[in-house]
Amino acid sequence: METSRSRGRTPRTLGAAALAVLLTTGAFTPSASADSARTETPVGTSGGVTETVVRVKAPLPASFGARPAACDWLSYLRYRSSSGPASSADADRVLVAQPGILEGAGAFDSVARNTVTRAAEQGRHIEFWALDRRSNCLEDRTGIASGNQHTAVDYYYRGKQVQGRTFAGFVGNDKLGWMAKLGIEQTVRDEYDLLAAELPDQGVRKDKVLCGGHSLGGVITGYFAAADFDGNPATTADAGHNQCAGYFALDTTVSTSLADLSGSIPDDTNLPDVGLGYGVVQAGLDSGLLPRSLSAPVLLNPETMTLLAIAGVGALQDPGGEADLPSYLPANTNIEATNRFLFSKDTATFLTGSPAVKDFRLTNEAILGSLMDDQSVPLAFLQSSVGFFDGGPITDKNFPAANGSSSQPGLFGTEYKAIPAEPHGPLYTWRNYDRVGDPDDPGHRSSDGTPFTAAGKEVTDIQELARSMAAQPLDFTEQYFPTKLVTDIELATSPQVKRLVVHPDGLTANPTLTVLAGDGLLAGRVPADLHPVVADGYQHLDVLTAAPVQNNGRPEPVSTALTEFARTPR
Predict the structure, then answer these.
(1) Cα–Cα distances in Å, from 424 out to 17, 66, 356, 361, 488?
(2) Which end of the chain, N or C, is surrounded by fewer C-beta atoms within 10 Å?
(3) Are 407 and 448 in contact (CB under 8 A)?
């Protein structure tokens, strides 16, 4: 039944259509020869937004050592108005976005589309560039691009070929030597080199480019704003702040500190102790004694992050079909531990593994919702608000933290967690964000009587989320996040990092838009002096994934704020 809230939102078929476009338009075939310095490949056009994937050749210095040829390229997703100019230099504005920790360019899909569309409705043609960090070059999307869950699982976990290609395996620390030097200095240099290559006229960059990012992307933007790129501080045309007309921060702040990102890095990651000092940490990275890529025992490692995209494929392929993914996956310690961590209702269930996720009947959409929704997944920085379970009784999820605990760590968020109550019972479906609170909504409550959710707290369309995760040529997640990027920032007072802040006034040299998730990382400690736009009910990822029309009938506030910021007179 259509409700007033569902009218005008993105059609549910858009995700499947985007996947079909990705598979049939040659999204992985460059539009220029292999030895070209730049390629731009169509991904698709939908709703007046044209998307392409752009690759620009930018070889690393020889000092980085051996690395795959693909890692000498920089990539981004380019979103523009289909009715606007073909040349980026002719756009009214160009928004350039740095991803957060463990995040790839695909995560910006919804906010990019929403912003470009909103501006076009007002007669302005802007572009949104979602950047991929260089380390994403190690990812292999072949199995995901097949558009079939079983094919993807067979490719990544059973050694079966897809289109004549065999998965080379997840990359071990011994093969990541070149990433030991991939820190904040090279990251901001990559952004500068990309901007200079794509928009060679510095005056155009200063006039039209808005630099920003999500989560850690705000800190990277801060270092970019304060950087000097020609080695001569007296000449400022190359200074970071002179490449941008303004800055934007999405559930973060533009700064050179991690202080505002509390809870964005789990305590059980393999992040080394920076108390050792810059020299010792760098020596450990160079030698391989320290991990060159950030990961955690469950969920946050290349193998399990691949599962998120595979779940997205199923949600696009057959949203309401009964999922067989949990039983089709191979049995190994990593997958088993992750499933227990995500689907256990209490400690006893986690320890015994019974009932397991494969004991429940879930649709493909419900599987994706279980992995990403704020009433299910415990880690706050991975949460989005995509709706709620439907089709059967629900119970409290008291693992790894108890529901309603006032001492619940910020890492786990503040929303009450829920889980299906009956194994081997009814088929649990997924109630999308815009159907929460409808007359047929059973309104599930926690054992203490607290409603698990409400319409005002659900903001992301699960099909749009699935499209972002499974139908993009650049990943939603970042499987190989450079450890050095975080340790550099944590060691900000060391001489080796401090020297990178050449123009500290660059952080305030341009106007800044700060947009915060109401229930995100800065919930309860909003920096009033930044005069932020606060998106009520949003979680950390919702600022990127929220649907264009919200449950109150109003346009999505993050893209609305970005559009208005882009209208600021130059």
Answers:
(1) 33, 51, 11, 6, 49
(2) N
(3) no
Number of Cβ within 10 Å of residue 196's Cβ equals: 17
Degrees to nearest 5, angle at CA 167 with 320 and 31:
85
Which tokens hold the place of 301?
């490692």
Beta bridge partners of 51: 44, 79
Other CB atoms within 10 A of residue 121 CB: 12
Helix/strand/coil for 101 = coil
Q: What is the pLDDT of residues 261-314, one digit of tens each?
A: 876 777 778 888 888 999 999 999 999 999 999 998 887 899 999 999 999 999
- For the record, the structure tokens of 204 come out as 């155009």
C-alpha–C-alpha distance, residues 199 and 203, integer Å:
9
Q: What is the DSSP string of 151-181?
A: HHHHHHHS---BTTB----PPPGGG-GGGGG
- How many C-alpha atoms does 399 have within 13 Å on its Cβ side? 16
Helix (H) or strand (E) holding 308: helix 302-317
Judged on CB neighbours under 10 Å (0-12, 13-18, 19+), 426 is middle
Q: Which range scores top for mean pLDDT: 27-41, 256-270, 454-468?
A: 454-468
Phi, psi of 170 (to 5 degrees): -75, 140
**What one-letter code names the amino acid at 526?**
V
User: CB-hemisphere CA count at 13 Å for 195?
Assistant: 32
Question: Per-residue pLDDT for 252 more than 80?
Answer: yes
Per-residue DSSP letters for 215-263?
THHHHHHHHHHH--SSS-TT--TTSGGGG-SEEEEESS-SSS-SGGGTT
Which residues make beta-bridge pairs with 78? 52, 129
Four-CA torsion 209, 213, 216, 222, nearest 10 degrees:
30
CA angle 6, 7, 8 (to 5 degrees): 115
Alpha carbon of residue 67 to chain centroid:
25
Give, to the nearest 10 degrees, the angle between helix 302-317 and helix 333-343.
60
CA distance 471 to 491: 37
Alpha-carbon distance of 540 to 524, in angstroms, equals 14
pLDDT at residue 502, rounded to an integer = 98
C-alpha span between 145 and 28 (Å, rounded): 9
Are the CB atoms for 567 and 511 separated by under 8 Å? no
User: Rg (Cα) of the chain, in Å, rounded?
Assistant: 22
Number of Cα atoms under 13 Å in the Cβ half of residue 30: 15
Q: Rounded to whole angstroms, how far apart are CA atoms 100 and 98?
A: 7
Q: How far apart are CA 365 and CA 483, in angstroms?
A: 33
Q: What is the pLDDT of residue 126?
A: 97
Model pLDDT for residues 467-487, shown as the tens digit of each residue:
999 999 999 999 999 999 999
Measured CA to CA, the distance from residue 125 to residue 119 in angstroms comes to 6
Is residue 211 within 8 Å of residue 225, measured between CB atoms?
yes
